[in-house]
């Protein structure tokens, strides 16, 4: 009876893992959101984005699709950098798109260097196949956490569940942080203007967080302006220090900061 239950649970776990992988991989094969507005190939913003994508090492940058999301996040990317699957897309907020064409600088609009850093950051995610890596990481990490939980279940079921969930969350966060540092590094490697644009953009976000904390005191924002609820990205202060370090180095190929992640 126990053997039958074990066999059944393995089938259920394997089926659930396969479903999760397909759900994560489908957006990579079909990288688009029906709620986003696609930009034409002759749009100046698209042309500039594809030039940056080529510099980051993206295969077939001419196939890169660019979308604009109203009121969405600053930027996002999805797709795969493979010769047999070269469909990728980048989505930026309307603020990023409008800032690209702004002729006169203002406090609310991003500078051209900031916009180009955002584009280079997202293109680096695609060039390094980060979306595909994350989708491939989830199923085996789930299996590993379940195996650990089963070994600990004989001692404490509650403890086994906590350890399983904790390992899954920490490993996913660690991988996500490493990818973000790599994307920052890849964007910074394109030139000094990209590095300064990245520092300015992150510093702008950090100052905004500090202002929010003053208006609405919360423990989710540190005194330095780091938003603790955003577990997918490293702390703003550490990303700023990373880019400032790259500014001090003569070459971005060797970075002691990146080697620790």
TrEMBL record:
Enumerate the UniProt keywords alphabetically.
Hydrolase, Metal-binding, Metalloprotease, Protease, Zinc
Occurrences of domain Peptidase M48 (ranges): 107-244
The lineage's top-level taxon is Eukaryota
Q: Which cofactor(s) are needed, names only?
A: Zn(2+)
| Alphabetized Pfam families for the sequence | Peptidase_M48 (PF01435)
One GO molecular function term?
metal ion binding
- Cofactor stoichiometry and binding? Binds 1 zinc ion per subunit.
For the biological process aspect of GO, one term held by this record is:
proteolysis
Q: Which family does it belong to?
A: Belongs to the peptidase M48 family.
Protein name (Swiss-Prot/TrEMBL): Peptidase M48 domain-containing protein
């Amino acid at each position: 009876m126990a053997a039958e239950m074990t066999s059944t649970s393995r089938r259920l776990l394997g089926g659930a893992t396969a479903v999760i992988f397909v759900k994560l991989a489908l957006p990579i094969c079909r990288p688009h959101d029906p709620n986003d507005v696609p930009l034409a190939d002759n749009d100046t913003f698209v042309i500039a984005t594809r030039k940056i994508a080529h510099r980051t090492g993206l295969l077939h940058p001419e196939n890169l699709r660019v979308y604009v999301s109203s009121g969405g996040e600053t930027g996002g990317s999805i797709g795969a950098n493979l010769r047999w699957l070269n469909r990728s897309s980048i989505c930026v907020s309307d603020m990023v798109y409008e800032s690209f064409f702004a002729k006169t600088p203002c406090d609310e609009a991003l500078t051209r260097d900031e916009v180009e850093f955002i584009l280079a950051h997202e293109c680096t995610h695609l060039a390094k196949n980060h979306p595909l890596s994350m989708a491939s990481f989830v199923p085996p990490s789930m299996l590993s956490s379940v195996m650990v939980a089963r070994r600990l279940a004989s001692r404490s079921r509650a403890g086994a569940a906590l350890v399983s969930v904790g390992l899954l969350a920490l490993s996913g966060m660690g991988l996500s942080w490493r990818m973000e540092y790599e994307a920052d590094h890849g964007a910074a490697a394109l030139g000094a203007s990209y590095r300064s644009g990245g520092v300015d953009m992150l510093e702008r976000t950090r100052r905004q967080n500090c202002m929010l904390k003053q208006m609405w005191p919360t423990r989710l924002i540190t005194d330095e302006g780091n938003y603790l609820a955003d577990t997918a990205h490293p702390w703003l202060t550490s990303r700023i220090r990373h880019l400032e370090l790259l500014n001090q180095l003569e070459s971005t190929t060797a970075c002691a900061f990146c080697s620790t992640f």
